[in-house]
């Protein structure tokens, strides 16, 4: 029979149990939930006699009688904002020898989060009493007790063993290294192809600027190691010998730089 005593913003809830069984308590700003596992104590079969309605007087002193609590009282105090990295809603919980799957279900229901786990791999029990703690910190503590961890994929939180997480991280690292190796091999193949590509020579005429001073410095950086660039000063020509792609890029640069200077017309 629960007995409630109210005094100065504090509520003491006392419950007598015939047998100590696993339980858990979850407290939010609006409610307190208590859940007890099944007891092994069998209740004696009793026949309830029929009685007529009547009135009974209960003295105030009898109602206020206290018994020794079987469960530690929960003190409700104003919540405080977390100072650490955890940003979840503040909750108060009390778990005693509870199955971790039940605890994860409670957290998922309270937070409205998508929490997924493998029932064959995720095993263990939880015993803890946390007061005014962010729910994500509660989840962290629950996982630590059972050597578990989480991986977030979008809006899904996957709970798995630390061994599984390390295996996945190793797999991702191997994929990353393999990708980098493929890029290196592709670049190496491109360099080999350039070495084997035949050289051609092109004459690029420069019409409005000086080929030696205005154009040549800008195309020196794009030639390959086998390429060469010279200037015919008398005809103002760029003579470039290189692979086709380098010559194509050189022509683009010349076209952008070889433009006439703007002139101003002054009328008398």
Automatic annotation (TrEMBL):
Keywords: Cell outer membrane, Coiled coil, Membrane, Transport. Transmembrane segments: none annotated. InterPro entries: NolW-like, NolW-like_sf, Secretin/TonB_short_N, Type_IV_pilus_biogenesis. Residues 113-162 form the Secretin/TonB short N-terminal domain. Residues 158-190 form a coiled coil. One of its GO terms (cellular component) is outer membrane. Pfam families: Secretin_N (PF03958), STN (PF07660). PANTHER family: DNA UTILIZATION PROTEIN HOFQ, PROTEIN TRANSPORT PROTEIN HOFQ. This is Secretin/TonB short N-terminal domain-containing protein. The lineage of its organism: unclassified sequences, metagenomes, ecological metagenomes.
């Amino acid at each position: 029979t629960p007995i409630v005593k109210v005094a100065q913003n504090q509520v003491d809830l006392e419950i007598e149990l015939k047998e100590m069984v696993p339980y858990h308590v979850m407290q939010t700003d609006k409610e307190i939930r208590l859940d007890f596992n099944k007891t092994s104590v069998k209740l004696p079969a009793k026949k309830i006699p029929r009685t007529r309605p009547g009135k009974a007087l209960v003295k105030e002193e009898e109602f206020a009688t206290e018994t020794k609590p079987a469960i530690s009282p929960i003190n409700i105090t104003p919540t405080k904002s977390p100072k650490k990295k955890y940003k979840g809603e503040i909750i108060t919980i009390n778990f005693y020898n509870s199955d971790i799957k039940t605890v994860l279900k409670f957290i998922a229901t309270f937070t409205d989060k998508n929490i997924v786990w493998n029932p064959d791999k995720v095993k263990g029990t939880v015993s803890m009493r946390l007061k005014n703690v962010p729910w994500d910190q509660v989840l962290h503590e629950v996982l630590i007790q059972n050597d578990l961890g989480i991986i977030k994929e979008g809006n899904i939180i996957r709970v798995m063993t630390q061994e599984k997480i390390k295996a996945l991280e190793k797999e991702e690292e191997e994929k990353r290294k393999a990708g980098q190796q493929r890029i290196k091999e592709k670049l190496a193949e491109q360099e080999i192809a350039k070495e084997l590509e035949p050289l051609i020579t092109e004459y690029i005429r420069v019409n409005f600027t000086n080929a030696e001073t205005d154009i040549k410095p800008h195309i020196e950086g794009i030639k390959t190691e086998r390429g060469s660039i010279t200037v015919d000063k008398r005809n103002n020509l760029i003579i470039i010998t290189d692979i086709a792609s380098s010559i194509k890029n050189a022509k683009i640069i010349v076209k952008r730089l070889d433009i006439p200077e703007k002139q101003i017309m002054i009328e008398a």
